[in-house]
């Protein structure tokens, strides 16, 4: 039996594929390579290039593979871009989910582990955020993912397709050996941008807003290491295979770091000065996002290995130093 990983050439998907293979699973990958990198996919996985919205293509993959479960990472995920291009997000992310579930149903594949996000909660009413808290997104990216969660809920009722929605907080880092990592074009995420400055590729970091109601005025986020995150997907798949019901889990460290603290941590790890300036707030940013992640620890038995941001940043720095240009195929897909 095979695990099908959609979006397996992306940042998080490629780490999940790698961990699945390390743990002895048979893996097939689907990716349209719009933001993913062929070189990020572990060579032991079978690779199909195509789009989840293309049902002929997807039916063909499901015909060829004997699929025990699906991990779905294929989505656009840039919050500021979603504010400017909401329909791009509803089309690719939300409509992509409808297409996938139709094909899964047709082929009697009844398990899906899904990349959801803290962005489904919007501006939280309380910190830490619990899975049962209201989900009121403040940007189209979060809305597109919330809709995907709801679509899965109704598809469970109607077709018995069981799901685990994993609501990630801020993912960072890379495989510790530096062989795979984060490579977005353009890069918008805090940690890789800080490291681009450290590497001399950018002049300075712009910190978006220092007038938030937080400890130092800058946004507070909860960072989780990408390999720990990948492992949670495997636990979620096994949870569904054991016959448990559909559910949602937060994945975070339960500790918040401000943007200024992240900058300080990166200065320590890299030994570089990393110039920074204050800049206006970025549209759609909630002030503080910290997960209550005890449910995943208790129910899925998730035991993240990384519990401090310096170690997480160190893995990202290792990738950055060994791959200053990212993946070699950047030109083809940028
Ligand atoms: N930031 C800066 N300067 C930059 C880039 C980012 O100050 O150049 C700040 C942002 O304003 C924010 C923080 O760094 O306060 C983190 O920003 P990221 O873009 O790295 O991450 P987000 O918190 O916006 O979003 C990430 C994922 C989403 C997910 C969300 C959930 O990209 O998919 O975490 O917390 F929904």
Automatic annotation (TrEMBL):
Keyword Isomerase: yes
Domain NAD-dependent epimerase/dehydratase: residue ranges: 3-252
Pathway noted in the entry: Carbohydrate metabolism; galactose metabolism
GO BP term (any one): galactose catabolic process via UDP-galactose, Leloir pathway
Enzyme Commission identifier(s): 5.1.3.2
CDD domains with a match to the protein in the record: UDP_G4E_1_SDR_e
Cofactor: NAD(+)
Enzyme class: isomerase
Keyword Magnesium (UniProt): no
Entry superkingdom: Bacteria
Signal peptide per UniProt: none
GO molecular function, one term: UDP-glucose 4-epimerase activity
Pfam families associated with the record: Epimerase
Keyword annotations of the record: Carbohydrate metabolism, Galactose metabolism, Isomerase, NAD
Catalysed conversion reaction: UDP-alpha-D-glucose = UDP-alpha-D-galactose
Binding partners and assembly: Homodimer.
Family named by the database record: Belongs to the NAD(P)-dependent epimerase/dehydratase family.
Stated name of the protein: UDP-glucose 4-epimerase
Lineage, uppermost ranks: Bacteria, Bacillati, Bacillota, Bacilli, Lactobacillales
Gene coding for it: galE
């Amino acid at each position: 039996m095979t695990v099908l990983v959609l979006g397996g050439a992306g940042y998080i998907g490629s780490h999940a594929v790698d961990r699945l293979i390390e743990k002895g699973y048979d893996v097939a990958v689907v990716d349209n390579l719009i933001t993913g990198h062929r070189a990020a996919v572990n060579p032991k996985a079978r690779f199909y290039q195509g789009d989840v919205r293309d049902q002929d293509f997807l039916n063909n993959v499901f015909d060829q593979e004997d699929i025990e479960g699906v991990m779905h990472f294929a989505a656009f995920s840039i919050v500021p871009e979603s504010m400017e291009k909401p329909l791009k997000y509803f089309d690719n992310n939300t409509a992509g989910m409808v297409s996938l579930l139709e094909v899964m149903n047709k082929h009697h594949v009844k398990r899906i582990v899904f990349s959801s996000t803290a962005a489904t909660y919007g501006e939280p009413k309380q910190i830490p955020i619990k899975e049962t808290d209201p989900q009121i997104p403040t940007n189209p990216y979060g809305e597109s993912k919330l809709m995907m969660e709801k679509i899965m809920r109704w598809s469970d009722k109607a077709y018995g397709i069981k799901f685990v929605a994993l609501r990630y907080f801020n993912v960072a880092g890379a495989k510790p050996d530096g062989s795979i990592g984060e490579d977005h074009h353009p890069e918008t995420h805090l940690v890789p941008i800080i490291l681009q400055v450290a590497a001399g590729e950018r002049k300075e970091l712009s910190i978006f807003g220092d007038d938030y109601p937080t400890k130092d005025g800058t946004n507070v986020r909860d960072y989780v290491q990408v390999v720990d995150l990948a492992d949670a997907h495997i636990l979620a798949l096994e949870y569904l295979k054991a016959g448990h019901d559909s559910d949602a889990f937060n994945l975070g460290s339960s500790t918040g770091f401000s943007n200024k603290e992240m900058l300080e941590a990166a200065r320590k790890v890299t030994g570089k000065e990393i110039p920074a300036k204050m800049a206006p707030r970025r549209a759609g940013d909630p002030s503080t996002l910290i997960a209550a992640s005890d449910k995943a620890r208790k129910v899925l038995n998730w035991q993240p290995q990384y519990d401090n941001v310096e170690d997480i940043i160190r893995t990202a720095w290792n990738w950055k130093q060994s791959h200053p240009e990212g993946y070699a195929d950047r030109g083809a897909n940028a």
